[in-house]
Amino acid sequence: MKTEERSDSSRPAEEPAAPAGRTGHRPDLVAAGVGALLVAVACGVGWAWQRSNGELQAQWPPLLASWNPHVGPGTPAALTVAAAVVAYGPALADRLPWRRLLLTAWATAMAWIFSLALIEGWYRGIARRLTTKHEYLRVIDRFDDIPAALRGFTDHIVVGPPGNWPAHVAGHPPGATLTFVWLDRIGLGGGAWAGVFCIVLGASGVAAVLIAVRALAGERLARRAAPFLALAPFAVWTGTSADGYFAGVAAWSIALLAVAATRRSLLAACASGLLFGWTCYLSYGLPLIALPLATVLLITRTTRPVLPFLTAALTVPLAFTLTGFAWWEACPLLVERYYQGAGGVRPYAYWVWGNLAAATLAVGLATVAGLRRTLAATPSAALGALHPRRPAPTAEAALTLLVLAALLALLAADLSGMSKAETERIWQPFYFWLLPATALLPVRGRRGWLGAQAGVALLVNHLVWTGW
């Protein structure tokens, strides 16, 4: 890895020559057009399918949303944040000192998420979201005795026995619910505090991704990705949903492993493992984060952090198991509960590709264009990484491998059949690692692509009521 790519210099590095076969804007525009076409087809087919028999269980597929054009208190702020990032984001990302860039990106992401959420107003957009009948805050009073609640947690997953959990509580390991129980215990109870907590932690994932990209692929590519991460379209669903919090925790696990692998930090390896263990107890689908984690080790060609990482990671399942909750017993019950509800009605034949249309809206067309460049670079990057005698991957190859790992994790979740709809919200932990693909786009077109990203988020948030 070149020394200048990992320096703290505030001066932007020169743009390297693009590899053959990936120059020019036209292929990027074609890829974005294909993404837009996928969304249009998913909307048209989904609307007709839902109208004919209601099987999709979504009023405005491929999103779980209903048509509701509106503006709100957050509209001026959202437009201001978007305009500021488009106009000044690329230049600031190139010139700010590294630590100030991290804080600025995190603060900008928070402003973006809060302003989008406030389009619905404070109560409807933030304070109420995590208090509805499906959410975690509905069961806080049932965790007065936490060990007893954990011992009996699996008894209330499947619909049928008295007192079955609300959908989101039943659909996740108890780590998710315990987070809000502990917030309540320290005096931060209620929907408003829970919403703010999820937004702040979710936005922090921007800084985590930048740290990881810098460690693995150099500062130049991290700086290029920064404005796109701060202005991510999936911010619509980060404010407010617990999945934004999950995404932030998973992002820091990957970032800390990247730091551990490149700086030989035992503390970072242990912290990464602890966060990964906690991530697995936030969502049953997030063990798939192991794919990006393993890719970090592949890129850095080291196994040094593995032992402390695994030792720390195993403390979380050990603690839960000793307290009375067995992950491996609960997961099959979740599958049964999933098919008792909308998951048993929603057709796989639509959602297996409709999910990808929802993902396109969540990551934006610039990311789709960046993914085209990622896939074009994949053969050479993969061959270089797997060949034992090749030198360490170049910055671009390292970024390609990291993005590809997230894409494979997302596709695995899609093919599993356990993610039929709502993926614009659920897949946020994977989306974070797709957005760095935008760093592969030419510098000259960055403002245009940023405008397209902001436009997607603003249109979605103003035209439909997402319910999250």
Q: Could you explain the architecture of this structure?
A:
- This protein has 468 residues and is mostly helical.
- The protein has 21 helices and two strands.
- A two-stranded antiparallel ribbon has the order 1-2.
- It is globular.
- Mean pLDDT is 93; it is low at 1-21.
Strand-helix topology:
Blueprint: H1 26-53, E1 66-67, H2 75-95, H3 98-117, H4 122-127, H5 146-151, H6 167-170, H7 174-185, H8 191-217, H9 219-230, H10 235-238, H11 242-263, H12 266-280, H13 290-300, H14 306-323, H15 327-340, H16 348-363, H17 365-386, H18 395-415, H19 423-426, H20 428-434, H21 446-463, E2 464-465
Antiparallel strand pairs: 1-2
Helix pairs in contact: 1-16, 1-17, 2-3, 2-9, 2-21, 3-8, 3-9, 8-9, 8-11, 11-12, 11-13, 11-20, 12-14, 13-18, 17-18, 18-20
List keywords for this structure.
468 residues; mainly alpha; two-stranded antiparallel ribbon; 66% helix; globular; disordered N terminus
Task: Please report the number of helical segments.
Answer: 21
- Percentage of residues in helical conformation: 55-70%
* DSSP strand count: 2
The class by helix and strand makeup works out as mainly alpha
Report strand order across the widest sheet. Answer: 1-2
Largest sheet, if any? Answer: 2 strands, antiparallel
Order of helices and strands: HEHHHHHHHHHHHHHHHHHHHHE
Proportion in β-strands: under 5%
| Apparent shape | globular
Unreliable stretches covering 5 or more consecutive residues: 1-21
Radius of gyration: 21 Å
- What's the end-to-end separation, in Å? 42 Å
Arithmetic mean of pLDDT: 93
